[in-house]
Specification:
Elements lengths: L6 E5 L4 H12 L3 E6 L10 E5 L5 H14 L5 E4 L14 H29 L2 E6 L2 H5 L5 H20 L7 E8 L12 H9 L9 H12 L10 E4 L6
Parallel strand pairs: 1-2, 1-4, 2-3, 4-5, 5-6, 6-7
Bound molecules: nicotinamide-adenine-dinucleotide.
């Protein structure tokens, strides 16, 4: 029960890694507000699912009002919603570039700008941003995604400094998952998945729960002296 009586907001909670994070938080005693662009029924009495588009600033402000009407304070924010729109650079459209930046980079800013300062005023909180192995190593056909995920690391380090000021005591960290078996991987060709798998020391892809457990650590008091860090959860990948 690492998160007993904690209130957590998790974006992208309908599927994949976000859903695993919601599950592991619930198992550890948290009350979870899950946000997703896809409407989803709650599957646990301590979980409320709300529809929201993280890339849309006005929609985030609307859903934030809803959150404050449901719970007193947010202790943990996990920015997990993400998309890919892959293309080799000369074929990448402006729309593909803008969509990925809007969801994966601005989407992280949209909620953190609302919740982070309140955490700082309360002098308590943990924010975890989901980056990617691609934000660290780069990847062919993913310049948009790599830019967004590297940008998430820059924002994480900036916020770790900003929200800790004046006794703020808010910890901000990133998790950079390796390739994980979710819907996002469905469009990746089998030979590429094998290549990524072979580039790990453990010789396999991740399960969503293995990423969620790292997020649980950073969200909990076990990580009370960890901030401004990027936790690589990639099976020892070297690209
Ligand atoms: N799967 C991987 O291999 C992998 C690796 C590294 C990082 N990541 C990152 O992990 C996070 C979760 O990815 P996943 O693999 O679980 O993908 P997924 O597609 O299974 O889940 C992503 C979720 O985000 C939601 N979402 C998409 N756009 C949204 C928006 N505008 N507003 C709100 N919700 C939105 C989707 O509806 C979905 O439920 C993403 O940030 C992704 O970039 C994934």
């Amino acid at each position: 029960m690492l998160l007993k009586n904690k209130i957590a907001v998790v974006t992208g909670a309908s599927n994949g890694i976000g859903r695993a994070i919601a599950d592991v938080f619930l198992e550890n005693g948290a009350r979870v507000i899950g946000l997703d662009i896809v409407e989803a029924e709650s599957w646990n009495k301590n979980l409320t699912m709300l529809k929201a588009d993280v890339s849309n600033t006005a929609d985030c402000e609307r859903v934030y009002q809803k959150i404050t009407s449901l719970v007193d304070d947010t202790d943990i924010l996990v920015n997990c919603a993400g998309i890919t729109r892959d293309a080799i650079t000369y074929k990448m459209t402006e729309e593909q570039f803008d969509q990925v930046i809007a969801v994966n980079l601005k989407g992280v800013w949209n909620l953190t700008r609302l919740i982070g300062p309140i955490m700082q005023t309360r002098c308590s909180g943990s924010i975890i941003n989901i980056s990617s192995v691609v934000g660290i190593f780069g990847n062919i056909g993913q310049a948009n995604y790599a830019a967004a995920k590297a940008g998430v690391i820059g924002m994480t380090k900036s916020w770790a400094k900003e929200f800790a000021r004046k006794g703020g005591n808010v910890r901000v960290n990133a998790v950079a998952p390796g390739y994980t078996m979710t819907n996002m991987m469905r469009t990746v060709p089998k030979n590429l998945l094998e290549k990524f798998q072979n580039a790990t020391m453990l010789g396999r892809l991740a399960e969503p729960m293995e990423i969620a457990n790292a997020v649980l650590f950073l969200a909990s008091d076990l990580a009370s002296y960890v901030t401004g860090e990027v936790l690589n959860v990639n099976g020892g990948m070297r690209l």
